[in-house]
Specification:
The chain has 13 helices and 16 strands. It is α/β, with parallel strands linked by helices. α1 crosses α7 and α7 crosses α8. The longest helix is centred in the last third of the chain and has 17 residues. The N and C termini lie far apart (73 Å).
Length: 466
Amino acid sequence: MATTNSRSCLQYLLHLAHDNLDFRLPEIKALLALRGKQFQPIENFKEKSPFWCLDGLSEEDVRGIMARSVCAKSAFELWGHGHTHSELRTSLLNYPSENMSPFMEKHSTYRINVYTFNKTLEFTDRIKKIDALDYLPFEGSVSLKSPQHVFCLLEDYGTDPNDIPDHPYYIYFGRWIGDGQRELIRSHSVKNRHFIGNTSMDAGLSFIMANHAKVKENDVVFDPFVGTGSLLVACSQFGAYVCGSDIDYNTIHGKGRSSRKNQKWRGPDENIRANLRQYGTEDMYLDVMVSDASKPVWREAALFDAIITDPPYGIRESTRRTGSHKDTTKPPDGFYVESHVPVSQAYHLSDIFTDLLNFSAHRLVMGGRLVYWLPVYRPDYSEEMVPLHPCLRLISNSEQTLSSHTSRRLITMEKIKEPEEQDSLALGADPSLSPYQGHNAFREKYFSGVNKRSGKEENKPEVNGE
C-alpha cells in the first residue's frame, strides 16, 4: 500500500455541491477548526466556484473533512491544473515524481474518471480525454471495478447553464481521497422519518448546522426550541449527547394528530426518542422536557458544548411564552393542580433572540457555539439587524432565500468570555447590542408580501380571451 509520510508540498482539491452556496465556506472552516487547521486557499480563490484548491493540509485532515461535510462531494490530491489541456500537461509533468510514484507502481491497479461541471460529455469524448493523458507514467494495470487508486480529470465549464462554453474554463487532475457525506441527506430525509411536524428541519440543513457548531463526539448539545428533534438527530449522528426543550406539550410527548397520511393520531413510535432510535443513535439521547425558553430553569453553570436551534417565526408555529397581562391570583406555595394549563402570551422575536443570546452566554462552555436561524424581510435587511452579545463573537452569517422578499440567515456565534456584571450594563448602553425591534414585524411583513404577490396573480390578464 502506498504511503504518504515522506511526500511534501501537497495541495488538495475540494469538489463542492452547487447548492446552499452561502453555507459551504463556514462549514469547511468549522471542520478544519476541529482539527486545529486554518482555511488556506491558493491564489485566485472564488467562493462560488464548485472547485476549491487548499494548501497547508495533510491527507488525514482532508479525510477528516470528508467524514463530516455535507457540502463537499469529493476531495482529491491535486497533481496538476491549468486553463487548457496544454497547461495541464505542463503542470503534471512538473509535479514531483516522488509524489506520483507510490501510486503508479507496476503491481498496482488504477482507474481514471472524467467529471465535467455544467456540461455533459459523450462516452467517446470521455475516453479520448483519458487517452490524451498517456504522457503520465502509469505502470500498473487498469481495473474498472476495484482499483487500488482512483484518479480524476475534472473540467469546469462555469456556472451558467444557459451559456456553456465549447472548452472548459479550468481543468484539474488529481488522486481521489474520499467522498463527503451527501448520502446522509438521503438516508435521513424527513420524508421517511417516523416523527415530523410543520417545521421539521431539512436533513441537509440540520447536518450543516451541526458542522457549523463544530459538534463532535461526546459533546452535549441543547436545542431550546426542539420541536420534533431534527437537529438532535443530526448532532447524535456525529456522536454528541443531545437534549432539548419546547413549550409545546403535545410535541414533546408525541401526542395529538399524526403527520402521517391516513392516520389520525400519533402512534407510539412518533416521538423524538423514536427518531433517534430509527437511525441507531438512541444511546445519545439524554432527554427532552416541556419548558418555556423565556424562563430560567437551568442551574448557573456552563452546561453545553453547543446550542443549536430554529426559533419559531410566527408563520407556521406561534411564538408564545407563559404569562399573562391580566391580573391573576397566584396559588399558594406548594399548591399544585395536576390539570393546570399555564396561560400564554405573545413572545416577540426580539425578545426570543435576546433571551437566546443571554442563555447561550451563560450556559455554553468557553469556545462553545450557538447556531440559530434569524428570519428577515429582505428589503429591510442590514447587518445591524443581527443580534450581538459581549460574550459571543459572530463567526458566520449565511443566507437561505425563502422568497423574493423573505429569507432566513444562519447565524453562528462562539463564546469568547464569561459573563460579567458590566455586560448587563453594556447591553443597555451600547446601541449595537440593543434588541432590534424590527424583528417583531416579520410576520406582518411576510404575509403582506404574500398578499401582494397573490393580488398580482389575480390581476394578470387572462389569455385566449377567456
